[in-house]
């Protein structure tokens, strides 16, 4: 007669081979990572808190945004290194012109002065469907606090995709932003302070920034933004980086079966930017991308 103790041991031994198989089996594909580009700039003022909250309501998984540094070394959410004349209104109510915008470098302005400009009320010809609403250029930490609180209220867990907007080659160092090492440190300090690191990827076109991040913050998930050429057959896409990133993020027109297969073989996720038509999103999903970054997150519901 088999005792209870011996029977338990027998079951454990019998299951060991199955456990080994389970550990080696590839993970099942996850749901598409739906990302709102700049919070969904086709619908709301880009890189603003109202845009991010609206994107959460639309059901996105990830909020994508751009980061710059002010004169007083604060991390702010902005795509351009200068005030965007297409969407900015001055403190006295005038619409900023293209010529005027050139004299407003964010890296030469303390944050308190940047906050005086409205970025949501001027009609933006690039996004005719964009809702007009009062908004200011937020601090990165301020935006995260707002989105985390809102997501919690909605019973959601939100992820982040933040871009270090340093210029490749060093041409912007000391002019539009600090040296790349300092830029990275300031961004990472805020990521760590807000406690979002495990839900945050850091992306950049600037290989220098990605190298610093990889060397100094090896635990940080990195996304390689790319808009260059891809040969066929594909060579080493990551040769310039010198390491394999967690994510490859090409402009969507570069994505094909070969690119997806190449990245799959290296255990690299593919997140494409920035398709803004339903048929473009549909094609990318059929190709098997892991994520899509779009200005119109409402398109995800039409798939």
UniProtKB/TrEMBL annotation:
Recorded coiled-coil stretches: none
Domain of life: Bacteria
Pfam families: GDPD
Keywords, alphabetical: Signal
GO-annotated biological processes: lipid metabolic process
GP-PDE domain boundaries: 32-303
Single GO molecular function: phosphoric diester hydrolase activity
Signal sequence segment: 1-24
Cited Gene3D superfamilies: Phosphatidylinositol (PI) phosphodiesterase (3.20.20.190)
Transmembrane segments: none
Family annotation (InterPro entries): GP_PDE_dom, PLC-like_Pdiesterase_TIM-brl
Descriptive protein name: Glycerophosphoryl diester phosphodiesterase
Organism expressing this protein natively: Dyadobacter fermentans (strain ATCC 700827 / DSM 18053 / CIP 107007 / KCTC 52180 / NS114)
Classification lineage: Bacteria, Pseudomonadati, Bacteroidota, Cytophagia, Cytophagales
